[in-house]
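Internal ticket - ligand job 251, beta-D-glucopyranose:
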Amino acid sequence: MSKKAIGIDIGGTGIKGAVVDVKSGRLLSERFRYQTPVGGTPKAIANTLKELISNLPNPQGLPVGICFPAVVINGVTMSAANVSHDWIGLDADRLFEKELKTTVHVLNDADAAGLAEAKYGAAAKQKGLVVVTTLGTGIGTALIYNGKLIPNSELGHLQIDGFDYESQAAYSAKERENLTWAQWAKRLQKYYSTLEALLTPDLFIVGGGVSKEHEQFLPLLKLKTPIVPAENRNSAGIMGAAYWAKKHTTD
Ligand code: BGC
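stdout (structure tokens):
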């Protein structure tokens, strides 16, 4: 049985992909990156995926996992953050299977990052409840219980102080408002304390590009729950998506 799958991470600005060894999570090819087409329509994105996959070594027949910034139920994208609204209610699994002529499984981007941590990273041996958060343009969340994903948690949209709190505590808010690390950490404190009060997790994992600077803000947080940076950063979505595709494909 082949242990390879293609993982693709679709974001508002970039689309990245590689071939992954799903046993170890190791990338078996170069990681290719394309700009997300302006407008982010399904057809334009499908064309970009075709081009990306044509660069990969021996892609024929490999299952493709795709992560996407949306609630995804049985391959149907139910929302669309930073991409065209044509995705809402679209059977993305079917669309991509038709275009790419192989098995495709789509999942939420934060869920893919969470799976990468659960299978190959900071939550690999963790029992109980792990809450993985990605701090980027928005806040993505993944709930992992005893290694199993509870999909589509969408806790970046918690209402705190009358705000959809990703608008206050995502990394994009720090950049937009020119917040210092300490100012941003105050908002993160509020966010993680709320999650802690609601869920009593065993571990928080913080991902997203900014997690490479975790020394600047994680030590400022006072929580009962241990909080650690993600181990898989740029490739977490790719690894988790490939794992998801393989898990849902019988060969
Ligand atoms: C979306 C989530 C996504 C997160 C990170 C949020 O705005 O609602 O589906 O996981 O951004 O991209």
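Auto-summary: The first strand starts at residue 4 and ends at 10. The mean pLDDT is 96.
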